[in-house]
Amino acid sequence: MSSPAQRAAQLRETLRDANYRYYVLDAPTLADAEYDRLLRELQTLEEKHPELCTPDSPTQRVGAIPSAKFEKVVHRRPMLSLQNAMNDEELVDFVERVHKTLSGESVSFVCEPKLDGLAVELIYEHGRFIKGSTRGDGEVGEEITANLRTIRSVPLMLQPGAPDYLEVRGEVIFPRAAFAELNRRREEAGEPTFANPRNAAAGSLRQLDPSITASRPLAVFYYDVGETSTRWTSHWARLCALRDYGLRTNPQNQRCADLSAIKAYLAERLAGRHDLPYEIDGVVVKVDGEAHRERLGFVSRSPRWAAAYKFPAEEEETIVEEILISVGRTGVLTPTARVRPVHVGGVTITNIGLHNEDEVRRKDVRVGDHVFVRRAGDVIPELVKVILEKRPPGAEPFVLNPICPVCGAAARREAGEVAMRCTNIACPAVLQGRLRHFSGRRAMDIEGLGDKLCAQLVAAGLVKTPADIYSLSDAAFLELERLGEKSVANLRAQIDGSKKRRLSRFLNALGIPQVGEATALALSLHFGALDKMMGAAVDDFLGVRDVGPAVAQAIHDFLAEPKNREAIGRLLQAGVAPETDPRPSSRGPFAGKSVVLTGTLAKMSREDAKAAVERRGGKVVGAVSRKTDLVVVGEDAGSKLKKAQELGVATADEETFLKMLGEGETA
Ligand code: IVH
């Protein structure tokens, strides 16, 4: 038997190696479940023997105490920007200028995707991750070490052979599918959504509580260095070295010998940009040779040896007709631009979320403005920018009145928050939003209790909290406009039926801050019954899968709040009796598998298919990668099917999928 110290060292090494193979080489050797098991073993060991815990242990990614603010970091070498080549002509100019300066020598280039994320710098000393910061203005950034530590493609320890001192630079990106999912969850939770994956990456990194960063699927590609104790003769050699140290580089980087190779690279990246699981907004062309770079030098803040070729924007122009303010179930006032209908990428856009007051100010959107719109992450409409030259005279700057447009009460913005909230706890918009969330498909699933009826019930003063719907008489429903006896009878059956929803649905229905469907299920499986949760301490919540300090605190505080306890008590009194969730199956064709759904299924909705896979112990993810186990292919499947075929991932048509579901039925 090895000593605890030996075992801990062995586990750390295995986990670190697994991370490297998974994130850098994209060739995993350990199954996810095995990784989790080893990580837990290490955690337990370190808990028992705290002296064995090292700062670079894979267990130390989260857990730092939230800081009150970000410290400033001065970059030892400024983080420069890139000169832009706006079109083919300017690209030709760039290449010609390079050749002219280097007077006819043979020059080679490296082309890289231009990632649309957030630039960061990480410092490694003796292979150990010491400090990380944002680019900031290029001279001074913000220290975000604790947050960067939570990203699995940030190695805490480099591979042997790394230089003693290394400042490495790269881009933190937010995968597209996860972006759509994050916004969906934020919308559901009544929180402000992100405009695009780039903002989501930035917002996730600038969290004072690292456990929030940890909950976001961020990733990094490394593409440059600052100060180092090593030198390379070419950029390509540098990229290869970074990869050897364990720092993930983009597999699409390529060496190009001349202009025609560069052009071919551009065309290929442009054609394939939507197939990537993350956003790129162009290509960066860099001179490869270090000696060449030195001779080319700099112009102001940009090197003469590199240029960013931006892809033409997939944008359309339209006009802002009105800026509307809606109020969600958490009381947040959200501005939305109603625009003249416009087609972008196959859909008609009429409304564009403007997220919050700061965002409207930053973009300076005014009623009457001509604007460019696009679809962020291929799905969500985004207002890119105002065309100032076309601004009509007299257009007034937007002001978000600190007054709730629904109830007229004061609205307030807490220090440090971007959201302005209605202060009236009885605001009809908030009650209506809460009731609607409560009755939603992913919550208590009360068919017939939709937007309209929720609005009517609140307006008539019949419902003050969700529990009230269980005590309403048929007569009360009948008095509402447009409700006949038959609909009331149906509604009654639905309301009664909802008393027996699963605990996970019930928890989701409560609208606990930071708790969406997935966390609700994790809580339900962990505690098994509501009463066990009601008395739990913050630490007890920390033991739940994927729950970090911030979320644990939020759940605890919600359940400790007397008003919420009373509301829950009233629901139980009304006969609501949540049922235990069945354990996801650990056998069958979906257990532990990662599944992607693409195209339209004829026999079931996407949501039902997802739920069916999850009940059988599988996970449904948005994008196809080497780690995907199965792609379910419906009607009109597009790029995901192509990707699956390219990567050799197994596919199943709907019929096969349904058969597999039959085999994997929960016990
Ligand atoms: S190299 C001096 N490579 O573009 C060159 N930058 O305008 C230093 N970016 O702040 C940067 N992808 O955020 C480089 N493959 C890539 C990049 C890239 C995206 C961003 C980066 C930087 C900005 C420069």
CATH architecture of the largest domain: 2-Layer Sandwich
CATH superfamily of the largest domain: DNA ligase/mRNA capping enzyme
- Low-pLDDT stretches are none
Instruction: Report the helical percentage.
Output: 25-40%
Distance between the termini: 39 Å
Instruction: Provide the CATH top-level class of the largest domain.
Output: Alpha Beta
Number of helices: 24
Kindly identify the CATH topology of the largest domain.
D-amino Acid Aminotransferase, Chain A, domain 1
Can you give keywords for this protein?
Helix Hairpins, globular, OB fold (Dihydrolipoamide Acetyltransferase, E2P), alpha+beta, five-stranded antiparallel beta sheet, binds 2-(butylsulfanyl)adenosine, 667 residues, 24 strands, D-amino Acid Aminotransferase, Chain A, domain 1, single chain
Task: Give your account of this protein's structure.
The chain has 667 residues and is of the alpha+beta class. It is built from 24 helices and 24 strands. The strands form seven sheets. Strands 2-13-10-3-9 form a five-stranded mixed sheet. Helix 12 crosses helix 13 and helix 12 runs antiparallel to helix 16 (503-510). It starts with a helix and ends with a helix. Bound molecules: 2-(butylsulfanyl)adenosine. Residues 80-82, 112, 114-115, 119, 135, 171, 223-224, 284, 303, 306, 308 line the site of 2-(butylsulfanyl)adenosine. 2-(butylsulfanyl)adenosine is lined by residues 80-82, 112, 114-115, 119, 135, 171, 223-224, 284, 303, 306, 308.
